[in-house]
Amino acid sequence: MECQIRKAALEDVEGIAKVHINSWNSTYKGIISDDFLKKLTIESGIKRWRERLENPSEKYRILIAEDDKQQIIGFIDGGENRGEADKYDAELYSFYLLEEVQNKE
Predict the structure, then answer these.
(1) Keyword annotations for this protein (predicted)?
(2) How confident is the model at residue 64 (pLDDT cuts 50, 70, 90)?
(3) Which of 11, 21, 39, 67 has the most CB within a 10 Å radius?
(4) CA distance 40 to 32
(5) HSE-CB of 65 using CA atoms within 13 angstroms
(6) Can you give the CATH number for the domain in which 64 is found?
(7) What does the angle CA 69 – CA 28 – CA 80 come to, to the nearest 5 degrees?
């Protein structure tokens, strides 16, 4: 499978939210309570990711992966180390892929 990696833009908010929520539901089912997972909504995800993309920082990045149809299939976000600052320059905060593209070449 071919994919492209690029910096996220504000118009990617819905796609990022869908990947985030769908990944949580497929990955954490049976690990985290169903009640918690049911409370995760695309709408709340859109709000969360919109806030991050509307207020960009040089210390924070979101990169998305798109398939050959330009559909968002995954993303990572990271930036400034939030812990022991003198040990590492940066930190990967999250890495999400849709279940159907996991373990693909």
Answers:
(1) Acyltransferase, Transferase
(2) very high
(3) 21
(4) 12
(5) 16
(6) 3.40.630.30
(7) 75
